[in-house]
Amino acid sequence: MREQFTKQLTELRQELIAIYTEIDLNLHRAVDSLVAGDKQQARAVKKATRVIDKRCAALEDSTYQLIALQNPLASDLRLLQFIIFVNFNLARMSNHVRNIAKTTKRASEKQIPPQLLDLLQGQANLVYMVLSATVKSIVENDLAEAAELPELDKPVNALYKSFYKVFSQLRTEEEISAASRILMASRMLERISDNAVEVGERVVFLLTGNREPLDTLADLDEEELEDLYVGQNPSLHKGTKKIEKMTSKIPEVAYTQEVAARVQEALKLAHQKNPFGGSSKKKSH
Amino acid sequence: MTKYRKAPKDTGKGFSTKDFNFWYGDFHALTGVTMNIAQNKITSFIGPSGCGKSTFLRCMNRMNDLIEGTHEEGLMTLDEQDIYAPSVDPVDLRRRVGMIFQQPNPFPKSIYDNVAFGPRLQGVTSKSDLDDIVEESLRRANLWKEVSHQLGKNGLALSGGQQQRLCIARVLAVQPDVLLMDEPCSAIDPTSVQKVEDLMVELAPEMTIIIVTHNMQQAGRVSDYMAFFLQEKAGEPATLIEYGVTKDIFANPKDQRTEDYITGRFG
Ligand SMILES: Nc1ncnc2c1ncn2[C@@H]1O[C@H](COP(=O)(O)OP(=O)(O)OP(=O)(O)O)[C@@H](O)[C@H]1O
Ligand SMILES: [Mg+2]
Fold this sequence. Notes:
Chain A is mostly helical. Chain A has helices at residues 2-36, 39-70, 74-108, 114-139, 143-147, 149-169, 173-208, 214-218, 222-228, 240-247, 257-270.
């Protein structure tokens, strides 16, 4: 009975991570489709997010079923609570990814200033890093990785704000209409990053049993973090091969100097009076 | 060594133990138990079979005195009085600290006589006083409605769940301060289990209740505080591993052994 239960928990956790991976991959595709104006890819992403939604619903059902049947306590209950919360957040993220894919079509009808696309790509790269750190904290049951999340999320918010600033300085009808489509995508990226940080907070709850804010964790050294862990569920360390295989599909993304330079360039332009007035009206792709 | 989780402080009221140890002959059954039991709350004792839950419970009303060759060390107090002091009369103590067992054990007498037994021993003789006590005790034990029309019936003719509540009524009739319950629900049907649990929650505001249970869900439903006992190796004494607020221990046990036990992963 107990062994069966551990196996079921392991499977639910694997499915959670599998969904997470799918969302990460589809976010890449959605942003790529937007930047490249690839409507076909955008459609494929929309379809994929519908499948993800179904998986989230099924995962939710299985989780509640286990709660009803097993009367779980301690780390069993925390893991199930964790899965329910993260799963709920994944469904939200899936919706955000879909919205980004939807903007591809709308944006492709307009000439988007390339600087805005650079800015968006830069922001996306930062979000990929947040997502990777979150997945890593889940897969490796790593508090230290979760503790990094707010720091990683900060520049995402900063870029979204810059985006907004750029937007508010636009003057011509045409520019505003084009940029508003991208602004929506930027907003979605910012939300996805926030969702991931919330997941990180639940990693802390899962591993420590406490609802410690991530910011306070960031101040602790390795040993102090080690002391926070409480009784660990065996299923957290099971099925690792399969999980590794899944998560290895997520591309490594860094916020490279090149990306940073392009973001800086875009922001500099944003602070000029007529930010995109002199720039090319043609998309760079 | 014991991990305390917002465990009750020593208020000078109710039960407290300090480094309490207990032996059956030369078998050291319990070691180093230090705890304050919250007054007028429900505390559950949990742990694998043989970890000394019943032993410790029986120490609290000196039932173990009845077993040849036992002795204790350390301190166990009730309202700051050392209950093992020579001046303490165990019979008197057992009136203040009542006990309910796993197997209901009514006397082979009428329902009425079962409940009136204690008060009569204490010298209550007036019929109307006894009537009042019997009714009140049966009501508090959630049994009155079922038996009021048949008080002359033999206690042993009741169902198991009713017998258990009759035993509770019998204990309540002498107005104890503390009620010890050793797996009171493991031999009765689910409806009676619910009645006994309701009854515990109703009694708790004016009575300290300690329940030994193997049912985690029951411990979670009824108890405010929880104590986890464990005998790590056969032949070695058992001890108190973790003690404190039930919901804290259920949500995140601090000790891996508690975690393993309450999640059913114990070897
Ligand atoms: N009368 C006795 N004489 C000698 N040893 C005893 C006696 N009663 C209990 N023991 C021993 O003391 C230890 C604790 O037993 P106890 O009955 O207190 O455990 P328990 O936690 O209540 O177990 P269970 O959950 O099975 O009721 C056990 O090793 C048991 O064998
Ligand atoms: Mg026992």
